[in-house]
Design goal:
The protein is α/β, with parallel strands linked by helices. The protein has 15 helices and 13 strands. Helix 5 links the parallel strand 5 (about 100-105) and strand 6. The longest helix is centred in the middle third of the chain and has 19 residues, at about 215-230. The two termini are about 15 Å apart.
Amino acid sequence: MTLRLVAVCGDPGGASAVAPVLELMMRENRVKVDAFAYRQACDVWQKRGMQFEALDEAVPQEEIDSLLRIPETRLLLTGTSVNGVDLEKRFIASARNRQLPSLALLDYWSNYGARFSVGEGKPAGFPDRIAVMDEWARDEMLAEGFDATRLAVTGQPAFDSLLGKTLANDVERQRIRDGLNIANDELVVLFASQPLAEVNGLSRGDSQWLGYDEKSVLSGLLRALDELSEAYLREIVLLVLPHPRENRAIFAGIGGNSVRVLVAAHGDALGVAKAADVVTGMNSVLLMESCYSGLLTVSLQPGLRRADSLPASRLGVCPAVYRDADMLPVLDRMLFDSAARADCRAKLAEFVPDGKAARRVADLAYRMAGVE
C-alpha cells in the first residue's frame, strides 16, 4: 500500500517554503503526495510546474474531512497563512479530529500566534509539529508560550535554491533592465512592497501597528531619492515591486519631483531585483533572498515599535533604517559611497544558507508518517 501525504497552502510565502519539500518527496516517490492550494499559492505552484488541485476558499468542511479520510493518508503538511481564510487551520482541526499527524512549516519570523489562532473561544489551531527556520524563531515562539515539544528547527526550504547563486553579470543585468525600459546609466532602487496595513493594522491605534506601513515608507523613500537625485545630478528610477497579495493599480499615479517611478509586474521578484543598484523594502522574505543572492539591500522600518523580525538586519548583513531622519544618509552611502558598498558586499559574501532545509523537513515528515 502506497502511503499518502496531503499538503495545503494559501499564502505565497508558505507555498514557496513548502514547494521544495514536496518536489523532493515527489522525486523520491516514497509517499503519494496530494497537494491542494488556494489564493496566491496556486500561482506559486503553477509557476514551478507542480501538480496540485485548486481549492475554493469556501470549501465545505465535509469536503476537507473527506480529503483526509482516505485510508492511506498518513500525514497532513501545511504552510501557514494570515489571510482571513486560513484553510490550513481547518485542515489541521480536521486532522486532529481524525488523530492524523499534522506538520506545519513556518516561512517567516513574525505573526507566530496569528498563524495558529482560530478566534476567541475556539481552540488554537496547533499542528502536532511546527518546522521553524532557526533557533531565533524557536526562542521567540517559546517566549510567546508555544510548546517546545512541537517545535523543530529545520531551516527555510525556500532559501535552499539560493545556495551558490551569483550576482547577475552585465549581460543579464542589461537584459533585465531593457525589459523594464531602464537605461544602463540610470541608478535603480527597488522597493519590495508588502500589504502591512492589511495584516498589522491601519493606524497607530491598532495593537499590531508596527510604527510604519507600506505607504509611509514608500513616501519617505521617494522624498529621500528625490533629494539624492537633485544633489548628485543623477537619474534615479524607483522600481516598485508589489507583493503578490497587492494590486498593482494601487501604485498608479505615484511619482517624484526628480525620480522616475516604475511599477513592476508580478513575476520573478528576485530576477527583477537583479536589475537594481540597491534593493529596499521593510521586512519581507524577498529582502532575505536578496541578501542571500549578494544584492545590496536596505531594510526600511522607520518608527519600528517592536523587535526587528528581519534576520538579515538583526545580524548586520543589511543596513536597517529605524528613524525617518536616517533614511537619506543610509541610502546616500549605499548608492554613492564605494567603500560602504564594498563593506556591505563583503558581509553578504559570508551570508549563505546551507541548502539542506527541504531535506530536514522531508525527513521529519517521513518520520511522522511512519515511512521507512
